[in-house]
Amino acid sequence: MKSDKRRRPLGFYELFENRRLKAAHRGWRARRPENTLAAFEAAVGHFDFWELDLQLSRDGEWIVIHDETLERTTDIEAREDGLRPYRVQDYDLAFLRRLDAGSWFVREDPFGTLAKDATLRRELRDLPPQHLPTPAEVMELARRHSVPVNIEIKDMPHRDAEEVARSFLQAIAPFDGSVTLLVSSFNHRYLAALHSLDPALCLAANIEGSLPPHLPEYLEQCGAKACHVDLPLAPKLPIDELRAAGITCGVFTVNAPETQALLYDRGFRVVFCDGV
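The structure assignment produced for this chain is given below.
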């Protein structure tokens, strides 16, 4: 059943005065462990909005994490109760919440930022233990800091699209109207299901590899008013045609300032970056 609520009268990107936007990709992940509350809080004042990743646990609860498996960004391999292949979908929320999601960052230094910045090393030593957040925790933090949020729903092939959409809308309902929200996904069936259930929700289609034919019509069918593409696909995007159709265009993931400038000049509204 479609929602009859009259809400979110403007699109997500129309609410920004800045024409050259920077999104904090998984939070400020060059300075904090990605997709943690510390990464999002660190990004306040340095980016225009946050981007985060969401997927469902075994017991149908939402958890903030990018990878399908847990070994890269948690201590799952060091735990005796961890079971290969360490898929998020194989664990209940209570188990996922007990994992250490911060120590790996200090150990791996994935962007080389710790090696170059003694102040950052000290900051991380004083950082409280980090765990995988729930969307409610991130949304509450966003509300407190008045930061817009882009939630990417990860592709979960074992889940029905309408089931995913209904569960997601239920999860974000407490923050409706208090957090400016954009929902994106590489699974465009999720977008279509969300649009059917709540036509006022702002949606973005994430695309990599190749473009669907008749892209403006395709995006309209998905209910998407924005299109985010990977950097190799950016030169192929018919950006003038999309902008004429009212579609906002963005690119991920772009850290080089000179590349960001070229993309803005070409007409892209937003770049997703790690804040290196």
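Interim note for the steering committee: The two ends are 44 Å apart (CA to CA). Strands lie at 21-25, 49-56, 62-64, 149-153, 181-185, 203-207, 226-230, 248-252, 270-273.
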